[in-house]
What we know:
The chain has 376 residues and is of the alpha+beta class. It is built from nine helices and eleven strands.
Amino acid sequence: MSCKLSHLGVLAALSGALWAQPLPDDQGTILKRKIESGETKLEWATKLGYLPAVLKEFDVDPESQVLVFSKTSFQSPKIDPKHPRAIFFNDVTTVGSVQGSDVLELAALGAKDGIGFYTMEARQSAPLKIERQGEACLSCHAPVNQGIGGVVVNSVYPNREGTPLFLGVGTFAQTIDHRTPLEDRWGGWYVSGTHGPVRHMGNAVAPDPLHPGDLEEAGSQNLTSLATKFDSSNYLRPTSDLVALMTLEHQVTMMNFISRLAAYSNLSRGDYATNEKRFNALVEDMLAYMLFVDETRLKSPVKGVSGFSKNFEARGPKDGQGRSLRDFDLQKRMFKYPLTYMIYTEPFDRLPAKARDRVLKRLHEVLTGEDKSERF
């Protein structure tokens, strides 16, 4: 763990500087305000509409594009294997784009209200506006995060139309993140990249509804091009980068932890004694996730096909030896240093004081070896 001590120092230097200022809004609310005031005017692009301008406004790398063809969105009628939904992301914001849709989908993690969900007008003929969504989104997104709005990456068994199939009497979807074996990931997603002999569920459909677990896997593994799967001419990129997928999976669970801890801390502020046990359990679960305690080790090296990995690492910050928590390993594990880069984000830095201080205290105990428990 000693290799990460300098990063704890970076965190300490970055943290606490913002506490005298009001809590900032998430990026969706900020863009909504800027559009309504006329401060920002988004440029329309042929074929791609407002998407390139929105990504530029949010500082989202187009190389982060990942593609999901399962019907697991409120826009499911427009999604199928020939028309996958494109998702782009940075550390705190995701943008979803569906072919032929009237709206873009936005989800943004903020320090004030957790994860906010928005739709943005995607037609040039209509007035440009962003609307924050409530129950319509939370009916699906709150249950995945214990009642607090959350984001999720699922793996499903999709039929030829992309509709998820039930596997026996169980659920049709499995939530995935860095703890999930690669063999169980990416059902209903396109995956471009190499991963050796390990087989995943991506790029494949289940042709027989009576046997939903039997995916048609021919031509689905170690794909460096998706040209045989769909027409990418109306997409920003022709890729659904494997490393971007792995990063998004890690990140959304971390976003959910931050959002849940912030909400719980605020709700239980007046009754800490009663809720201390539950509060500390949440901190411990989040800490273990931050430190990749239960990470699935890679059985062979993985590699993406876009510029995502290089661009992601370049965003820093770095310590005095040029190291960053954003540095990938991709040989035996996901990142070179097993402490989440999400500690660099403002929503983490602006957690309620009791939550933030408790997490930093526990981090210090683990990273310095004061905590000698087997879990760490």
